[in-house]
Structures
1.
Amino acid sequence: MIASPPLPTHAVLGIETSCDETAVAIYDGARGLLAHRLYSQAAMHAEYGGVVPELAARDHVGRVSALVAETLTAAGLRANQLAGIAYTAGPGLIGALLVGGSFAAGLAAATGAQLIPVHHLEGHLLAPMLETRRPEFPFLALLVSGGHTLLARVDGVGRYDIIGETLDDAAGEAFDKTAKALGLPYPGGPELAKLAATGQRGAFRFPRPMTDRPGLEFSFSGLKTSVLTALPRAITPQDRADLALAFEEAVTQTLAIKCQRALEQTGLSRLVVAGGVGANRRLRALLQSAAETQAFELYFPRPEFCTDNAAMIAFAGHARLAGAQPSDSGIAARSRWPLHTLAPA
Ligand code: KG4
Ligand code: ZN
C-alpha cells in the first residue's frame, strides 16, 4: 500500500520550557486549539523552595519528546502535517529555553515545518484570544506574572506600548516571597491565596503602594517589608490567614486601582488580564465588579492559561507564522528580551 501524502494544515505546535513547566499544544487556524498538555516540575523544585535552573533544564530534556508525541496523538495529527513549530525563545532560564528551542529546531528540520521563535510575554498577552469570548484590538493589558508586572496598550499582534511597569518586584514575586516568609510551600502564590481564603478582614492592613500619587508605575518590595514587620504578630494559624488576606487585598486592590487609572488615561474600554497572578480569584472578582460599575469590558484567559502553558505559545506562533524567518537562522534563546522591541506581525 502506498502511504498517503501528508494533509496540509494550518496547525502550529507550541513548546514552552522557559521555567519549570514543560508544555506542548497545537493550535489550528481553522479549528482552534486541538490539544494541550502540561507537566509541572513544581514538586521537584519544592524541596529547594524555588526553581533550580539546572534541574529544570534536565527535566525538560526527559519530558519534551514524550509530551510532543502525546499532544500530536491527542490532536490526531502526524508531525509532518504541522505548518509551524513555535517555541518560547525568551525571556526565561537560558538552559531551560534551549531544551525547547533545540527540540523545536530538530522537529522543524525533520518535518519541513516553519520554526517560529515566540516571546513568552506575547504569549501571555494573547492568551485571552484562546477563549470563545475574545477581545478585539485595541485593549489595555495588565500582565502580572512571576517575573513581570506591566500595563500595556495593545493595538495588534506585536504592537505593544508599555505605559506602566514595576520599579522593583513583580506582583507574582511579591506573592511568592510573602508565601515563603509565611512558611508556605513552593509555588507560593496559589498557596498564599488558599490560606487567604480562610482569613478575616481587619486584623492587619498593608499599604497600597504608589496609589497615592499619579502615574501607572508599581512597587511591591516595600509591601514585602511591611509583611515581614507584621509577621511576629501573626502567632496563631488564624492570624496567619488574616495576614495572608490583608496582603492579597493590598496587592489586588493596587492592581485594580492602576487598571482603572490606565483605562481613564488611555480612553480604552477593554481590559485584558494575563499572567499567573491573573489566576487569583480575588483579583478576578475585584476587576469583575469594577467592570460592572465602570462599564468596561473585561477579558481573562481561563485560569490554566493564565499561568505558563503552551496553548498561548502555539497561538502566538500561529499569529507570527506568516512573518517567521526561515528555520536555518538558528535557535534563539534570550534570558532578557524587552517586549517593546518586537516588530508588528
Ligand atoms: O505566568 P506565570 O505562570 O509564570 C511567569 O511567567 O512568571 O506566573 C507565575 C506567578 C508566580 O509568582 C505564582 O505565584 C503566581 O503567578 N500565581 C498566583 C496565583 N497563581 C499563580 N498568584 C496569586 N494567586 C494565584 N492564584
Ligand atoms: Zn509566564
2.
Amino acid sequence: MSRQKTLLVTGGSRGIGAATVRLAAQRGWRVAFSFASNRSAAEAVVQQVEKGGGEAFAIQANVGDEADITALFETVDRRFGALDGLVNNAGVVDMKARLADASSARLERMFRVNVIGSILCAREAVRRMSTAHGGKGGAIVNLSSVAATLGSAGEYVDYAASKGAIDTFTVGLAREVATEDVRVNAVRPGMIDTEIHASGGQPDRLERLRGLIPMRREGRAEEIAAAVLWLLSDEASYTTGALLDVSGGR
Ligand code: NAP
C-alpha cells in the first residue's frame, strides 16, 4: 500500500480552509492545519474529521509572522515527516473603504498576511517537497480571488491587489519549480458563503451582491474545496501555473 500523504492547510479552522481540511481527510490525506486565534472552531474541525475516521491536527500560527510559520512547518515535520501538499488558504479582508481613506497599517496587514505569509509558506513547502532539495515532490494550491481580475473598486482595492500578487506569484513559482516535481496552482473563488464578509463589516454582502453573479447564487466552501482537492490530486498531474476561477461565472 502506498504511503499516506500529508497536507498542510493554512487557516483551516473556518470557511474554505475548514471545508478543504474535511474533504482532504475524506480523500485519505493526513491533514495538519493552522488557525490564527479561534481554537474552538479548530477543535470542532478536528472532531468532525476524526468522526469520519480521518486524521487532522490543528496548530495555532499567525501567517503574518515568520517565526510562527517556521514553527508551524517544524511541528508538521515532527508530527508527520514528509510534506506532500500545501494549501495557502489563510487570508484577510478589511472594512469596505475607498483607497483615499486607507491607512498604511491596513495595507501592511493585508499584504503581510495575504501575500508575504503565503509566499513564506510556499518557500517552506518548496524546501521540503522539491526534488532539488531532496524532497519527493508535491503540490501547492494558493487561494486567490476573482477580485484579482475585478479590482474591488470602492470596496477593497488593496485586497484585490494582494490577490493579484498571488496570481503572479503562482505563475512564477510554478515555472521555477516545474522540473522539481512540484506543481503550483491557484483557485480564484467568487463570492462564497463564509464568515469573511462579516469580518470585513459586511454581513449582508452576499445578499446585496448576489445579483451580480451570472449563476445568481453564492458558492459554498465545499465547492471551492473540491477544486483545491482536484489541483492537489494526480488527476491534475499536467496542470501547473493555472488560475482556476470557481465563481459561478463572475
Ligand atoms: P474565513 O471564513 O474568514 O476564514 C479565514 C481562516 O483563515 C480562518 O481559519 C482563520 O483562523 C484563518 N486566518 C485568518 N487570518 C490568519 C492569520 N493571520 N494567520 C493564520 N490564519 C489566519 O475566510 P474564507 O472566506 O474561508 O477565505 C479563505 C481564503 O479564500 C482567503 O484567502 C480569502 O481571501 C479567499 N477567498 C474567499 C472568498 C469568499 O467569498 N469567502 C472569495 C475569494 C477568495 P481563525 O479561525 O483562527 O480566525
